[in-house]
Design goal:
The structure holds 2 protein chains of 2 kinds. In chain A, 0% of the residues lie in helices and 48% in strands. Chain A is mainly beta. In chain A, the strands form 2 sheets. Chain A has a 6-stranded mixed beta sheet with strand order 2-10-9-4-5-6, with no helix packed on it. A 4-stranded antiparallel beta sheet of chain A has the order 1-3-8-7, with no helix packed on it. Chain B is built from no helices and 11 strands. In chain B, strands 2, 4, 5, 6, 9, 10 and 11 form a 7-stranded mixed beta sheet that branches. Chain B has a 4-stranded antiparallel beta sheet with strand order 1-3-8-7, with no helix packed on it. In chain B, strand 9 and strand 10 (106-111) form a beta hairpin. Classes of the chains: A mainly beta, B mainly beta. At the A-B interface, strand 4 and strand 5 of A face strand 5 and strand 10 of B.
């Protein structure tokens, strides 16, 4: 099975900050990686797929990059509504594993 | 508008069974693979099972293999998860999610609101 790690697991930031979250896969997954945002009590929301493609309706301050085993999610200027937990997911093979999550909190 | 609505959650004793349903609307259900994903209280997301559009391909997480069965009824636009031999560690919110499959990408673009399953004596 492919394992995903995320760093950091917790991030404290201020509105306007540039934030970067890293996701690493235990083996190469090409670009079969998605990023999701989840707020408390809500279902996850798709942000990025195919490592770098922005889902329709998602603000352009979100971007993704990477391929193979290392990927990043960047929020160029953190907004109040961005405080949430972010998960990466690999879709290269089954099981469709998720990373452990990165919680972005208000500094 | 795409909608996925889960139902069937509740409190069940260890060793018991439960059947979850996911009612889909707003899209051609028979054209999409579907998934179940769960989230234990205060924990991260865990993929549970996938079923292809025509039910030809089915996959399970090792943690549920042999106990859970995914199925779908394209005529009723519905996805199901039959859960048997339930354990305390199966306690979670269960989400159904639509999967988009293209030549170059896969992703879960729509999710239901989730249904809570609690396994406790």
């Amino acid at each position: 099975d492919i394992q995903l790690t995320q760093s950091p697991s917790f991030l404290s930031a201020s509105v306007g900050d540039r934030v970067t979250i890293t996701c690493r896969a235990s083996q190469g997954i090409s670009s079969y990686l998605a990023w999701y945002q989840q707020k408390p009590g809500k279902a996850p929301k798709l942000l990025i797929y195919a490592a770098s493609t922005l889902q329709s309706g998602v603000p352009s301050r979100f971007s993704g990059s990477g391929s193979g085993t290392e990927f990043t999610l960047t929020i160029s200027s953190l907004q109040p509504e961005d405080f949430a937990t972010y998960y990466c997911q690999q879709l290269n093979s089954y099981p469709r594993t998720f990373g452990p999550g990165t919680k972005v909190d208000i500094k | 508008e795409v909608q996925l609505v889960e139902s069937g959650g509740g409190l069940v004793k260890p060793g018991g069974s439960l059947r979850l349903s996911c009612a889909a609307s707003g899209f051609t259900f028979s054209s999409y693979s579907m998934n179940w994903v769960r989230q234990a209280p205060g924990k991260g997301l865990e993929w549970v099972s996938s079923i292809s559009s025509s039910s030809s391909y089915i996959y399970y997480a090792d943690s549920v293999k042999g106990r859970f069965t995914i199925s779908r009824d394209n005529a009723k636009n519905s996805l199901y998860l039959q859960m048997n031999s339930l354990r305390a560690e199966d306690t979670a919110v269960y989400y159904c999610a639509r999967e988009v499959v293209t030549l170059r990408s896969y992703y879960f673009d729509y999710w239901g609101q989730g249904t809570l399953v609690t396994v406790s004596s």
